[in-house]
Amino acid sequence: MKYTAPQRAALIIATIAAFITPFMSSAVNIALPAIGEEFSIDAMFLNWISTSFILASAMFLVPMGRLADMRGRKRVFIAGMAFYTAASFTAPLASGAAALVICRVVQGIGSAMTFGTALPILISAFPIERRGRVLGINVAAVYLGLSLGPFLGGIITRYLGWRFIFLATVPLGIAILILGPLYLKEEWGEARNERFDLKGSLVYGSGLAALMYGFSLLPSMSGIVLSTAGAAALIVFYKIEVSIASPVMNMELFRSNVVFAMSNAAALINYSATFASGFLLSLYLQYIKGMSPQVAGIVLVSQPAVMALISPLAGGLSDSIEPRIVASIGMGLTTLGLSPFILLDRGTPMGLIIAGLVVIGLGLALFSSPNTNAVMSSVESRHLGVASGTLGTMRLSGQMLSMGIAMLIFALVMGRVPISPEHYGQFLVSARSAFAVFTALCAAGIFMSLARGRVR
Fold this sequence. Notes:
Elements: H1 5-30, H2 32-39, H3 43-71, H4 73-90, H5 97-125, H6 131-159, H7 163-167, H8 170-183, H9 198-217, H10 221-241, H11 252-255, H12 258-288, H13 293-300, H14 302-320, H15 323-338, H16 350-377, H17 384-413, H18 424-450
């Protein structure tokens, strides 16, 4: 299949960008025990090395997607990669956990700027009948990053130290900063004459941050107060958006576009049910099974490796078969793959763990590309940035919710204590409980996926 020069440039640059963030996230996850040991922090604070990045990304995705629709997607994309690369270069210099969290926040902002624009750039560069295939390639790059992250992250952590993980993506970021201005010739901004909704963006970002951070503090009173305040702020945000001419998030996309609304809801459920599984299994393999970071990474790579192999095929299928059919089958397989971990204990066979990860990987591959195709094909071109930002927000909110569920269960069962041999039993109870919740969520998501209706 032949592509034009601008199409090739857009695909290559967006694919490299799609690889960087998941590689970093999965590599950092495998290094969390080493980071916790060096900085002497408990499991609750250790969680913020991951969730600070997710929270910052979620806050900025929709506003940055909207800004890109108005000011030009290439411009916002390049600026975001500059932020991300600078933070990756600075993170190894962190002298404490708080400084590292700040670097992760800046990375999150840069990631929001690139993720909210990379998909719209691809959609703008390719005709609708070829979107599923290129989106499948893009998603495959995401999963390739997830595949290599634990493996290379384990090797880097063992032989060079966790700080070198952040430096690993700097050359790729610099390559994009050079190639992007040279080969991306268009700005792709179809909403140039509209005004940016600063008030709505501030209310949205603060409300989402309060809701997510509050959820991570549950069941404490501060967690209840923050979660309630965040939910109230999002209600205010909705009222603002329906009353102005140029909202940062067009609520009509949810109220009148069933495919858009249900596809985003399915994405939220899917990521809520699956993201923390890698976090939990990384801790399980290293603490309970006594594996080194390198060996644990090799085990965990089985899931994203399957996802990377199957995603292009799944994306292509969604060009000819209704996305809701392919995506719903994927959600069902993910449910099946999660279910064995409800019985996780010290003696769980490694074969069963790897088989569960492979089935989850197959399910996620069949879900993600078709679901992305459904979302991006359901809106007009002037809403592509907002659509991409909304889908990204569902992904990150789901990831944050997934980690929040895991941390809430940890808080209720273990409390704020290090994961040490005397607490291994409580850790296993926590992990089993979390996987039970995730399996139930994913099962409910099958029906949400089927309810979206037809794209074509």
